[in-house]
Amino acid sequence: MIKVVLFMGCLLSTILISSANPNLATKSDDDDETWIIDPSTDLNMVFAESPTSREYNEDVLNKESSEHFDYLLNCSEKRGRECNEEVMEEILQNRNVSDRCCEKIVSVGKDCHVGIANVMFKNYHVRRFASRSVFKASKVWNRCYAQSDAAHTPYSG
Fold first, then answer.
1. At residue 99, what are phi and psi to the nearest 5 degrees?
2. 27 in helix, strand or coil?
3. Among 6, 9, 82, 157, which is 20 to 30 Å from 140 by CA?
């Protein structure tokens, strides 16, 4: 508690001294009148612009190869919008996908399923969940594959 009071006291005194004599904040200790902040600098000028979410998403999608993107787009269309939304809900909200959606996931294959999840989680608005998307997408695949007919069909190599 004493450290907090001392810190606040030092901070308050620094602010009061700086506001009482603004030259202390702009000049160095040298006698040659060198300015720390160049007075001709326009502080309202934008130094760097961050991309908008739309620009970010476009840039991410442009980095994907067109063949890979077309493959994932085709897979996504085969699964359907409703199933894609169910997968996102399972990954983000732990809601299980329906049996019908599981069948579609297995029918398009694991590469397609995980690839779609990776591209979906590169989206600006959900990228903060990307670290768990691959793990959860694989978990969804494993669960759906285990309950599908393909897992129960004997191999006749």
1. -60, -40
2. strand
3. 157
Q: How many domains does the chain have?
A: 1
Residue 35 phi, psi dihedral angles, 5° rounding: -90, 140
Q: The tokens of 87 are what?
A: 């997968």
**Structural domain contains residue 3:** no
Q: Which long-range contacts (CB under 8 A, 24 or more apart) does 7-12 make?
A: none
Nearest to 141, CA basis, from 113, 100, 108: 113
Could you list the residue range(s) of the whole structural domain that residue 117 is in? Answer: 53-151
Residue 95 lies in a domain: yes
Burial class of residue 91, CB neighbours in 10 A (0-12, 13-18, 19+): buried
68: which 2 tokens?
Answer: 């890979």
Maximal C-alpha separation, the chain: 90
Token code pair at residue 74: 């085709």
Q: Does some domain include residue 21? A: no
- Judged against a pLDDT cut of 80, whether residue 43 lies above it is answered with no
* pLDDT single digits (tens) 104-126: 999 999 999 999 988 888 888 88
Which pTM does this prediction carry?
A: 0.62
In a domain, 94, yes or no: yes
Task: Report how far residue 91's alpha carbon sits from residue 57's, in angstroms, rounded to the nearest whole number.
Answer: 20
